[in-house]
Amino acid sequence: PLTLDADVHSANGAITEGTVSFQLRQNAQLIGSSIDAPVQANGHALMTVEGLAKSPTELHPLQQSFHEAHGLQCGYCTPAMILAAKALLDENPHPNEAEVREALSGVLCRCTGYVKPVEAILRLEQGGE
Ligand code: FES
User: Fold this and answer.
1) Is pLDDT at 38 greater than 60 in this prediction?
2) Ligand 1-lining residues (CB < 6 angstroms)
3) Could you give the 3-state DSSP secondary structure of residue 32?
4) Cα-to-centroid distance, 33 and ligand 1 (Å)
5) Band of residue 118 on the pLDDT scale cut at 50, 70, 90
6) How far is the CA of 43 from the centre of ligand 1 (A)?
């Protein structure tokens, strides 16, 4: 069983048969999911994709932009891409395409590429359509 002694605001990703996948932010730093993540989370607050929205019926602007730009991919990479985008925009509210691609570079996807997620982030920065 997974025991996590952390200040958990919400759960993200998948907990499937003893594995856990989530993103952890320590001191506003995005930390990639890994087998070590539960240990790294000990005593730290977690920001997850579910925790972004103000309420269960209202999407965060990043979630809405991913939806509208068709940037939603699978359940493994999409939460990480959205959280990576959140971390980027918190630090740099007006990123260019190269900065967006760099921010997403730690999220590995060999299925579809990064075109639509990058568009979703740049679209949000530009205020939508
Ligand atoms: Fe999610 Fe490729 S679509 S990992």
Assistant:
1) yes
2) 73-74, 76-77, 109, 111-112
3) coil
4) 15
5) very high
6) 30
